[in-house]
Specification:
The protein is an alpha/beta fold and about 525 residues long. Among the domains are: about 50 residues; about 170 residues, Rossmann fold, CATH 3.40.50. Helix content is about 40%, strand content about 20%. The protein is built from 18 helices and 18 strands. The strands form 4 sheets. It has a 6-stranded mixed beta sheet, sandwiched between helices. It is globular. About 35% of the residues are buried.
């Protein structure tokens, strides 16, 4: 169990939250949500002890181990994969190292023997005899197969490192598990495995995630950072959303009734206050009016961008034909004889475990790179807008202000028009004068979406657009794509995003090509079958 007592935090002169009195208990999973900048990651750091609050304290049950999902992909480059996972339980590794050091001594003394006996006993209590097999189970469950288990971390891609660091956090069944965006860069199989693992885990789990399906699947409680405070709700994300929307609606309706009542009382008082026969009634109604109060509607820190894609023209019947495309990247064949035809107004999700295959296909059909074999052809009436998974070329080192950046990628001339569009994407006032090179990941994504909206394209191509976005921005983008009347090709690890948009699923993974007009949930069920 872990709890907070009157925890408050100010950051940069702004109070993120105050007076947080919360208790997190074993067997429950708590989803920590809030707008970007609300303090979610900061609150996790307070719980882990990495950061001290301005006021209050964090109390944990004595003897319980806290495990934190690490974010630095390079922190363990000097270790093997197995050693990295075992370091999820630092005390176990200390015992193992001391044991090995003692056994290697040439002048092994009686005192050394006594110490080794003590270490062996602690080693057994910590589950040392099954530690490596436990680590292997975690790694394999996340899709990190045996050939990687004793490889050097420095030799691996970041996508693999993400899974290894997740296995490290989960290793040894910690009593308290803190995770910030654990599903980022995970494929659908790894996410599904993680969901089942957390559901069965009898620990206190506190997780920050922008994946609505994940929050609905694993969370027993939602912890919301908003209005300068932290509030806990029983139930998953959908329950929290429905409950808070209902509560706000009830407040608005009650205030509306109160305002009507106040108006009626005020009219009576104005009409009859000078009338001797009605003066007592007027006085009585004046007292009633004084006692009527409108319930405060606090200002939420949540902000929803405006996302709406409008094509300049309707596309014809010829959209896209891909014929026998193959491509080798880094010595590996990622696309093998891929063929399909896209029909007008389809919304196609490209899925599968090989993110490089999907990105490579998108880069080919947008003209960024050439295939090794095969061809593709767009219809003459099509116009495309592309959202790449890596947008660094648009921002790194760019000295443009956001106003100039939008001008570069649009036909807008007047600054008022540019600021209007930036305001829709939550860049208002002085924020519009920020340099493009200093933007955060989420801000860059919003700029790229603005660029696509201004393109007027009738084909939208998205490669992982939900990465770096908060829940509110994901919801706005989700709805914007649903309402778009033309063709969409996209890939995303966000389950709900794919399920609510796609009417066709294509897997271009080499050796396992799949193409069907089916929903995402139906596709996943077919895989199980």
């Amino acid at each position: 169990m872990i709890s907070t007592v009157n925890v408050s935090l100010q950051y940069g002169g702004r109070e993120l939250f105050k007076g947080a009195d919360l208790t997190f208990t074993n067997g429950n999973c708590y989803g920590l949500i809030g707008a970007n900048g609300a303090g979610k990651s900061t609150f996790l750091k307070i719980l882990s002890g990495e950061l001290e609050p301005n006021k209050g304290e964090v109390i944990t049950t004595p003897g319980e181990r806290i495990s934190v999902l690490r974010q630095d992909h390079f922190a363990f480059d000097e270790f093997t994969v197995m050693r990295t996972v075992l370091l999820g339980n630092p005390r176990l590794c200390e015992v193992m190292d001391e044991k090995e050091e003692l056994y290697m001594k040439e002048d092994f003394s009686e005192a050394d023997g006594i110490r080794v006996s003590e270490l062996e006993e602690e080693f057994a209590e910590l589950g040392g005899w099954s530690a490596e097999s436990d680590a292997e189970i975690l790694l394999n469950g996340l899709g990190v197969t045996n050939e990687y288990h004793y490889a050097q971390m420095s030799e691996l891609d970041n996508d693999v490192k993400v899974k290894i660091l997740l296995a490290q956090a989960l290793f040894g069944n910690p009593q308290i598990l803190l995770m910030d965006e654990p599903t980022n860069h995970l494929d659908v199989d790894a996410i599904s495995w993680l969901e089942e693992f957390l559901i069965d885990l009898d620990s206190t789990v506190i997780v920050v995630s922008h994946d609505r399906h994940f929050l609905n699947k694993v969370c027993t409680h939602i912890v919301d950072i908003d209005y300068g405070k932290i509030t806990m709700y029983v139930g998953n994300y959908d329950f929290w959303y429905d409950y808070t929307q209902l509560a706000q609606r009830q407040i608005r309706e009650q205030n509306k009734k109160t305002e009507q009542k106040m108006k009626e009382l005020q009219e009576f008082i104005s009409r009859f206050s000078a009338n001797a026969s009605k003066s007592k009634q007027a006085t009585s109604r004046k007292k009633l009016l004084e006692n009527l109060k409108l319930e405060d509607m606090p200002v939420s820190s949540r902000r929803f961008p405006f996302v709406s894609f409008k094509p300049d023209r309707e596309a014809g019947n010829d959209m896209l034909t891909v014929d026998s495309i193959s491509k080798t990247v880094g010595g590996r064949k990622v696309l093998d004889n891929v063929s399909f035809t896209i029909k007008p107004r389809e919304k196609v999700a490209f899925v599968g475990t090989d993110s490089l295959a999907k990105t490579t296909l998108f880069r080919i059909i947008t003209g960024e790179i050439e295939p090794d074999e095969g061809t593709y052809k767009w219809g003459v009436t099509t116009s495309r807008a592309y959202f790449p998974s890596d947008n660094s070329e648009f921002f790194d080192g760019c000295e443009d202000t956001l106003i100039d950046w939008i001008r570069r990628y649009s036909n807008l001339v007047f600054e008022t028009d540019v600021r209007g569009w930036l305001g829709r994407m939550m860049f208002s006032g002085e924020e519009a004068s920020k340099k493009a090179k200093v933007l955060s990941g989420g801000e860059r994504v919003r700029c790229m979406l603005c660029k696509m909206m201004l393109s007027g394209a009738n084909v939208l191509i998205f490669d992982e657009p939900t990465n770096h976005l908060d829940l509110e921005s994901i919801a706005a983008l989700n709805n914007g794509i649903i309402k778009f009347p033309e063709t969409v090709l996209f890939t995303s690890h966000d389950h709900q995003f794919v399920q609510t948009i796609a009417n066709r699923i294509i897997d271009v993974t080499a050796g396992s090509f799949y193409d069907n007009e089916i929903t995402y949930d139906e596709y996943l069920e077919s895989l199980k079958a």
